[in-house]
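--- STAGE predict ---
source: upstream dedup step, 1 unique chain passed
mode: sequence only
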Amino acid sequence: MLTEIGQKKKILIVEDHPVARLGLTKVLSRENDFQIIGEAEDVNQALEIIEKITPDIIILDLSLKSSNGLEFQKYIKANRPDLNVLVVSMFDETIYAVRVLEAGAKGYLMKDAPVEDLIKAVQAVSSGRIYVSDNVKSKIMGNLSFRKTDENISSISSLSSREQQVFLMISRGWRTRQIAQKLGLSIKTIETYCSHIKDKLNLSNAAELLRYAVQWSIHDGKSETRETVNI
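--- STAGE serialize ---
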């Protein structure tokens, strides 16, 4: 089901439960900044809508009719990295939130969250920012920030200006291809910067870099880092 396109943030809801779709549509349609441009109950329907109209944000459930929401997110990351995704699910956020962020989503919200949190999450993700609950923030902080925190904070300052720029873009949920396009560099060059960043921060792989960058973004980093980076 498609609606007329306006100047508002365009939202596609991918959810296989009609009552849940109706609830999301009613809540978000009341906001002046949002417009529901489509609803889908599975991946095939979602792809058909995306081919016709490019949404600013996809609200995605992990459990879909005849399809897997997490695999769909991985497909979006590989094929449509310009699309911002907010996962809204009943699955335990302490287990799945980090997984969906690593798969390329911009945010994770439990279905039993207050309506106010849904609005905040959609606003954040539609602007390209990462959104997770306070519980998930604490989990990420607990997993990463207490391991050589002072050493890693010092290491952030040791990154070159370009490396800091790439790191900050990663912390905001940008993918390698998006960073390369934004900076006018090749994907291979960005991958080289990421390799240097991992070495300097003593991080083992791309997944750990993403988790640490998200943690840094949540913690808000150092003010001098944000002043150095201009994107």
